[in-house]
Every structure is written in C-alpha cells, then in structure tokens.
Amino acid sequence: MNKLTDFLRNFGAAGLFLGKILAATPASLLRPGLIMAQIYKVGANSLVLIMMAGLFVGMVLGLQFYTTLAKFGAEQSLGAVTVLAMVRELGPVVTALLFAGRAGTALASEIGLMKATEQLAGMEMMAVDPMRYVVVPRFLGCFIALPLLTGIFNLIGLLGAWFVAVQIMGLDGGQFWAPMPENVDVYEDVLGGVMKSVFFGAAAGLLAVYEGYNAYPTAEGVSRATTRTVVITAMAVLVLDYMLTALLI
Amino acid sequence: MTEPLIEIRDLHYRRGDKVIFDGVDLDIHAGKVTAFMGPSGTGKTTLLRLVTGQLKPDRGTVKIWGENVPDLDREALYALRQRMGMLFQNGALLTDLSVYENIAFPLREHTDLPETLIRDLVLMKLEAVGLRGAWSMMPSELSGGMARRVALARAIVMDPEIIFYDEPFVGLDPISMGVIVRLIKLLNDALGLTSIVVSHDIEEICTVADHLVLLSEGKIVGEGTADELRDSDSEWVKQFMEGLADGPVPFHYPAPDLEQQMLREGDDA
After folding, report:
1. ipTM of the complex
2. Are B67 and B76 in contact (CB under 8 A)?
3. Which of A118, A126, A127 sits opposite B90 (nearest CB)?
4. CB B5 within 8 A of CB B192
C-alpha cells in the first residue's frame, strides 16, 4: 500500500513538475544557445551508440525475416516488413530505451550532483531560476533529440537489413526496395512512429530532470535517482508504447 | 541606534518533529560584520537560508529593507537577491564554466553590459581576491581555498549591499583561512557592505566580527562583541567560547545507563 501511495505521489509530483517546466519554457526559448548545447550533449553524444544499435538490429531483422519468409517463398516482402517493424515499433522503443540508459542517467546524475554541491541553490541566490537555466534546456534537449535519433536509428537499421538480405543472403535489390511504396504509409506508419518518439522524448526528459532535481543531495541519493531514472523511463516507454499503439491502430 | 537592516521577529521553524527555531528575535545593523555562532546542528545555516528566502519559516517575520522576505513572490525575492551575495560552504561554483565565466555569470544574466566592461569587472574582482592569474582555470583545478575565493569574487561581482558567508573557514589550511578572514573584513569596510558570517571557528570569527550571536537549541543564548561574550557569566556562553567538552551542552548524546547497556544481552547494541 505504501508503495502504491508513493507511486501515486511521485506521479502527481512529476505532473506538477511538468507544469512548472512548461511555464518556464517560453523564457527558456529566448536562450536557444542553452538548448542547442543540450541537444548536442544528449543527442550527438548518443549518436554512435544509436547508430551501432540501429545497424545490428537491422541486420538481425534482415537475417531473421529472410530465413522465415524464405520458407514461405515470400522473401520479396522482406523490405516492407523490415521497414514496418523498424518505423512503427523497434525504432522508437529501442532508441528510447538506449537513450534512457545513455542520456537520461547522465542528466539525472548531473542535476543531482548540481543540487548536492549547492550549485542550484547558488543560482537561486544569484536570482537565476534553475528551472530556466538548468531544467528546461535539458528537458527540451531530450524532447528534440530523441525523435532525431529515432530517425537515424531507422535509416541505419534499414541499411543493415538491406546489407544482410541483399549483399549476404542474395535477395534481389529490386525485390527489397520495390514493395515499400505501396506497403508503407508515410502518415500512419512513419509519422506514427515519429509521434511515439516525441512522447518518449518528453517522458525520458521529464523523468530524468525530475529525478535529478528531486534527488536527495548525497552520494547515495544521486545514485538512487540515476537508477530510478533508467528503470522508470524504461517502464514508462513500454507502457506508453502500448497505449499509443492502441490509439494509432 | 539606527534602524536595523535585517529585523527578525518571533521566528519559528521546525523540520519534521525537530524544532530548529523557537521564537528568535534579532536585529542586524548595516555596515557591520555579524556572526552567527553555535555548535554543529544548531541551525546556523538554516537561519541563513530563512533570512535569504531559501526556506520559509513556520511563523514570524524576517524583514530586509523593510520587506518581509517570507511574503515575497519569486520576482520580488529575486529582485531582493540581486542586492545580496552569498558564499556557500563549498563555493558552489558552476562546474561546467571556467573561473572567468563563473564570475561573469551573474553579470551576463542580469545586465546588458558590453563584453569589454564585463571583462574589466571580472578581472577587478579576481584581483581583489588575489586570483587574477587563475581566470582561465576550471573549478575542478582549484584548491578548496581558491574555489572559495573565486566564489567570493562572484558573490561581490554585482556589488551587493549584504553578503552572507556560510561556514567560510571549514576545511581550509591556516594560510587560506587567514586570507579569507582578511578578505571578509577588507571587503566589508572597502565596499561598505553588511556581512553575515555563519561559523563555529571562534578564534577566526572573533577577529573580524563586530557583533556575535550565539545560537543553541532554537534560541539566541548570547549576543554582543567578542569581549562582551568572553566576559559573560552565562555557563553556556563560557562553554562555547572556551571550547569545554562538558557543560550545558552535554558531552554525551542522550543514552541509557552505560552499566545497564553493557550488561544487557540482546540484539540492540
């Protein structure tokens, strides 16, 4: 029962925190430099991880689908099936999970340590709102970077699948690409996937800054906040994924 | 006597079940160095946070320039804080900015000064704390004493009227401590500031403070100049000023009888 009330209290507090973030966002938008720096920090620094993951997920899909579809003589559907799996599900979800581990934890521990070393209180005393200067730029950084990373994950994944299916397994290149235009819908499939990643970006960003900002200002508190960030973000992404999929279908 | 700059009346504050302040009344006058003293855990830093509006009291008023701090909204509080500087215990420098950028930070946030003027101001403040040569260093490259001096330069860069020091001597070697002591006095007199220092280092603080306030168990137990406190008859003041292990503040944390506890067999110690 205590855990449930704790969960509900945290859920409500995170919602209120989101309200504060949105209220401080207009003022933060006047400082695009801070937001760009965060997009670079969470986005560009996650790029290699996301690209590697995209490449291997795509290659595995190419291999699995080729061997399975070949049994039914349906190899020519491979390209379309791979793209659908990537843009609708795997791209947004896997990117968000990796992002939570790579960028979410970094943000939570950074903000938690800023709190523990009194940097946030120092800003308050210099009459600089830490919400505007620290929290909102990091939240927006996640919100903008994650959909971009998802797009890159999808593209690299598609190339990985193509490489395995066409270059290694010997599927005809034309058969790989040709079914895509008629089977993949730009709005429903591609934009649906982008929309998921926008929600995941907001969730990952919110949970990272919320956990960091509310961390107990000790070594143990920061470590707890970091762990909670990755665990709760992963759960939130999976739950949101089901809800969004149900809405979109 | 002139009107006090900071006027605290009937201040009550509790954290959970623990009473931190139980009706504190205090006046702080302009142009003076006032020290809050007391054993660790008496709430000296908490008092500083209540005065600067980082915490809200349960009851009572804290008036600065006639404005009651707990009643101020965020905007008014920030306007007030632009007239204050604060030196945190560990400096609280922004770790992703260089020494130069740390000191320029409040200027960039609150003014539209041209870069050349910001540069001149930053270098002047760094010169004042003797660290002009360290302008390009990052906070992680500074020693504890240097970090505190940089933080002091940052605290005075907006030319505040009041400056707060939270335990400025903790963890410093004797030379750095001497430097900070000298700077507190020098800055207070040269810039016409009002300084409030939280400390329990009696020797150092007595050399700079014009007025000492001794806190214990939620109340002010002694007040006056260093000489007045040294001559005080109060047992409590004597214990603190002379650093005696036992007195009104007991050496032992409350515990059951030693013999009983040693003889008892059980799992609770």
Report:
1. 0.85
2. yes
3. A118
4. no
